[in-house]
Amino acid sequence: MRDGGNSRRWLLVLASLTSLVMGGVAVLIGLEAMSWVASGVAAVFGVITASNEIARAGGDGPSDARTGGESSPNRPRRLTGQAWTAVLVGAMAVVFGAAVAFRLIVNPVGSETLTCPKPSDPITQAKVTSASTAAYPDLKIESFVYNVTYNGTDFMHLEATGRITGKVPEDQLLYPFGSADPRTRDAYGNAGVEGLFWGKDELIVPDQNGCWSKPQRRFGGYAGARGLTFYYHLGLVPHSQISCLDKVLSTKDAEDNGVEAADLTRCGVTLLGYAHIPTDPV
Description:
Elements: H1 2-28, H2 32-57, H3 81-106, H4 112-115, E1 124-125, E2 128-130, E3 140-149, E4 156-165, E5 172-180, E6 197-198, E7 211-219, E8 229-238, H5 242-248, H6 252-257, H7 261-266, E9 270-278
Antiparallel strand pairs: 1-3, 2-9, 3-4, 4-7, 5-6, 5-8, 8-9
Helix pairs in contact: 1-2, 1-3, 2-3
């Protein structure tokens, strides 16, 4: 019976340790669902292991040669070294399971707040309008944060960061395209131009978490654009269609008024959506 009890003890210890290791590995490599399961299993085995050993220690006292080999009811059994090991492993498993659960609730794996940069203060979280695309259903604009600085009616400056979900395909490039709400007015009373302009020198390269950033630079296209609400579009451009896009946007009319979305589509551009960037009037 003692051999059977020891075997059961070490099977529980082994199960607790295995679940601990699996949970730890899952947390390190970012497998959130697996870490939940493994840490939960570790906690369950930990409770069973620890409570089993404590219950064994709380049973009849140890046998005594002076009482004919019978246990003394007034002498509770003490935990042996092996039992203490089992209790310690069980306690570790319980604590680990609770810690992982707390970490995933308070700060989920892959949280943007841990991985994505932010522009200089003061920052604004932009409203984002995503476009659903059949070709790239997993690619979406998740967030866009920016800082706009002003100098009277001179050029504004924009610093922006953001995050997309999914990965940019190898045969595609991610670029910004700009437009302005025609219902808004600049510093001189001119309406915004709703045609799309290409940020040809503004290639966006997201990191492995989908985060990207652009340092502060001139914004709005011209001095006096302050007061307009701008739309900062993100679009996929095939490598092979850069020359097509360049040709479409190099005409005098396109340089002044931008182009329509249909013109971009003819060059294989896929728009993923846009961020709203209102600017303060003078």
